[in-house]
Request: fold
Amino acid sequence: MPIRDAILPEFDNEMAGTRKTLERVPEDKPDWKPHDKSMKLGRLAAHLAELPTWASLSLAQDSLDIAPPGAAPRDPAVMTSRRELLDAFDKNVASARAAIAAASDETFMQPWTLLKGGQKIMTIPRIAVVRNFVLNHAIHHRAQLGVYLRLNDIPVPSIYGPSADENPF
Reply:
């Protein structure tokens, strides 16, 4: 079985769960955070919406420098509205899904390098980027967002099974 056929069902499932969570993000609390060291809610939601782009990037290019020498620092995305957030997420998921669906096993196994300021941070196979920087990373931040929702008395969606607010079974 080609790698893409193994990864796409998981990608689709995780992105559907992430979208369900993003649909509940309150528009009136973008600056809310549970702790001084925590990400603001609007930034966390926008970060989740942009994570699928790592699949497209890693499958299309050999490396990414997150702070290219001489370039201005990148301003992180922040949610301005739920509609904008969901539109960006849907666009990024569609692009990522198309890139995954088009990738050969050979492409998935090619090395990809993450750089910062021209310095290599790591080199890993492209499939590891999809697994770690897209899927696992999204699961991690989606769980954080679930806690943010709970702390704001917003119903937490069912993802892998019942939540305290939803029981799809």
Observations:
- Strands lie at 63-65, 111-116, 119-125.
- DSSP finds six helices and three strands in the chain.
- The mean pLDDT is 96.
